[in-house]
TrEMBL record:
UniProt keyword Membrane present: no
UniProt-recorded name of the protein: Ester cyclase
Signal peptide: 1-25
InterPro entries: Cyclase_SnoaL-like (IPR009959), NTF2-like_dom_sf (IPR032710)
Keywords: Signal
Domain of life: Bacteria
Pfam families linked to this entry: SnoaL
Record has Kinase as a keyword: no
SUPFAM superfamilies: NTF2-like (SSF54427)
Length: 191
């Protein structure tokens, strides 16, 4: 068992370090995270991607929204999307050509000081151009997506996503899908 003098010295050292750290935090205003690095700001950035970008009414408004919230050197890790912010903007417009009434419904937003995750549902009807190679016939789409972004300099920087492709492909009427895809797409959605 440690001696009493050792425990006393350890306690005094701990109190001194705590007092010094607290005093430094109070005096050094640069220690606080920038407003764009807060959990709240990053959650708002994730919401803005949809509210100002994806759900905007016109191509110009969508491009302006994405330009505001997405980094110019955006890193896209979706294998079917073109790279960069301009690639993202063009990719979204391809969705709108196929699904003119596209709408994104945000389900949940989770954020940290350097990431944001949004779980959302895409809805709309394929009445325009072909979508993922499927000819338009008014197919009703409603499937879930999860997006993950890193934040850099107050903008969305790196992006990963997961789409509920089995449900989407079944709703598009794609034939010859594996039975597990058809089974999964037929299960009730739990949101």
């Amino acid at each position: 068992m440690p001696s009493f003098p050792f425990m006393l010295r350890t306690a005094v050292l701990a109190i001194t370090l705590l007092a010094t750290t607290t005093a430094c935090d109070k005096d050094d205003e640069d220690v606080k995270p920038a407003a764009s690095d807060t959990v709240e700001a990053n959650a708002a950035l994730g919401r803005a991607f949809f509210e100002e970008g994806l759900n905007a009414d016109t191509p110009a408004a969508r491009a302006a929204g994405f330009t505001r919230v997405v980094s110019p050197d955006y890193q896209q890790y979706n294998a079917i999307a073109p790279p960069g912010r301009d690639g993202l903007i063009g990719f979204v417009e391809e969705f709108y050509k196929a699904i003119p009434n596209l709408n994104a419904v945000i389900r949940e937003v989770f954020a940290t000081e350097d990431r944001v995750v949004v779980r959302w549902t895409i809805t709309g009807n394929v009445t325009g151009a072909p979508f993922l190679g499927a000819a338009p016939s008014g197919q009703r789409l409603e499937f879930d997506v999860i997006d993950i972004w890193t934040i850099r300099n107050g903008q969305l920087y790196e992006h990963w996503d997961q789409f509920d492709w089995p449900r989407c492909l079944v709703q598009l009427g794609i034939q010859g899908l594996p039975a597990p895809f058809i089974e999964a797409a037929g299960r009730p959605v739990r949101r």
